[in-house]
Amino acid sequence: MEILMQDVLTVILAGGMGSRLSPLTDDRAKPAVPFGGKYRIIDFTLTNCLHSGLRQILVLTQYKSHSLQKHLRDGWSIFNPELGEFVTVVPPQMRGGGKWYEGTADAIYHNLWLLERSEAKHVIVLSGDHIYRMDYAEMLKAHIENDAKLTIASMAVPLKEASSFGVLSINEQNRVETFSEKPQSPQPMPNNSEKCLASMGIYIFEMDTLRRVLRQDANDQQSSHDFGNDVIPKLIDEQQVYAYNFCSDRGRVARDCYWRDVGTIDSFYQANMDLLEPVPPMNLYQPNWGIRTYEAQLPPARTVSSATGNEGIFINSIIASGVINSGGSVQHSIISSNVQIEDSATIVDSILFDSVNVGEGCKLVNCIIDKHVKIPAHTEIGLNRVEDAKRFHISESGIVVVPESYQF
Fold it and tell me: Rounded to whole angstroms, how far apart are CA atoms 9 and 59?
């Protein structure tokens, strides 16, 4: 079955505050938070679009969007508008009476005029703040084959985590029979009592259906204007809502079944650490599914022997361009571009963002250091929780976060 990609409009929701990721989101939108040494979180969603053949993309921004808009300009100005291709940033237009977006459905409703100008028949709604690889073209094929009005990407999650998701139940034809947003008592899967079928927040709507339900929702004074809470449950009764099994993805991307909502410091930290596994659960090295980003033209990373004779050492770590390790030791860590590590510094189980300077003899353990931080010589972070708590945010699992441009 051939799908004309001009029949598909993609909308990426990238306006959330990401308050649970503070202080990493104090000055940037969540989709713009650095990830994996060289990427931004939104790069994964946009890369999926690129490899899936989606060329008409609207990115709806809102809170603290400057860093995100700059990244999209620098790294994603790659499509040709003369061929009908675009990645267009859409800040709030205040078409709803001067209000900010009040929910996921409301964000698209405020921009319904852009959808109506489009000739697309199908609308793919995505989130810009999840880490995963997926071939949306395969989900679109299943959507069309099922003659669906709405298709929801789904995957099995542990029962104890399911209350954080929208939970579905389906019949043998994958038609969705029930949908409950963040239930207190999630319904387990019939064939696995310890797991639930959860929505991933990835939707494909028929254009006519989306326009209709958004208008109905906008006129509902009791609605929270959210897809999971309000729009989807009402569509279930129409019996043309289907689930797509993400873990049986039939596309060109390797089937690793990896999807993470990096909404907290601990989940963000763990998703980064996943990349350091001997066989990472998500493969960044698949040749035909490379993750695209903006990367400055920097010299290669290098190690240097210090004046005291110490050799710069990297062990099981990810190292970006422009890094200079002058006699320090880096173990099981992710080091972003332009980081400088001085003599006898030790970095273990940590994530350093761009342009961090680690002074001589520093010890960093279980921490995240945001951009443009100069750490004085012999500073210790992550070794004394009481002292760290006087200056920095500490996550539930003990990850210490030093905010951007922090002055010691």
Answer: 11
**87 and 213 share one domain:** yes
Residues 283 and 342 in one domain: no
Q: Is the pLDDT of residue 189 over 80?
A: yes
Q: What is the pTM of this model?
A: 0.94
The string of pLDDT tens digits covering residues 121-145 is: 999 999 999 999 999 999 999 999 9
Task: Give the range of the structural domain holding residue 372, as residue numbers without chain letter.
Answer: 302-402
SS3 57: strand
Does residue 296 belong to any structural domain of this protein?
no
Task: List the one residue out of 39, 37, 18, 29 whose CA is nearest residue 352.
Answer: 37
Which residues have a Cβ under 8 Å from the Cβ of 112 and sit 6 or more positions away?
A: 211, 214, 215
Q: Using an 8 Å Cβ cutoff, are 226 and 186 in contact?
A: no
Specify if 87 maps to a domain: yes
For residue 125, list its beta bridge partners.
Answer: 11, 203
> Structurally, how many domains does the chain consist of?
2
Q: Is residue 407 part of a domain?
A: no
Asked if 364 and 236 count as a contact pair (C-beta separation under 8 A), the reply is no
**HEC profile for 106-163?**
HHHHCCHHHHHHCCCCEEEEEECCEEECCCHHHHHHHHHHCCCCEEEEEEEEEHHHHH
223-263 residue pLDDT tens: 788 787 788 888 888 779 999 999 886 678 877 889 999 98
Q: Residue with structure tokens 């109506």? A: 116
Q: What span, in angstroms and rounded, lies between the C-alpha atoms of 18 and 262? A: 10
**The predicted structure's pLDDT at residue 275:** 97
Residues 140 and 268 grouped into a single domain:
yes
The pLDDT, as a whole number, for residue 162 is 83
Task: Work out the end-to-end distance of the chain between its first and last CA atoms, rounded to an integer number of angstroms.
Answer: 60
Give phi and psi for 319, each to the nearest 5: -125, 125
- Could you give the CA distance from residue 309 to residue 305 in angstroms, rounded to a whole number? 6
| 282 and 314 belong to one structural domain | no
Quick one: which of 23, 28, 41 has its CA closest to 259?
Answer: 41
Distance between CA atoms of 250 and 75, rounded to whole angstroms?
Answer: 28
What pLDDT does residue 220 have?
77
Residue 237 gets the label, from left (phi > 0), alpha (psi -120 to 50) or beta, of alpha
Which of 116-125, 153-162, 252-261, 376-385 reaches the highest mean pLDDT?
Answer: 376-385
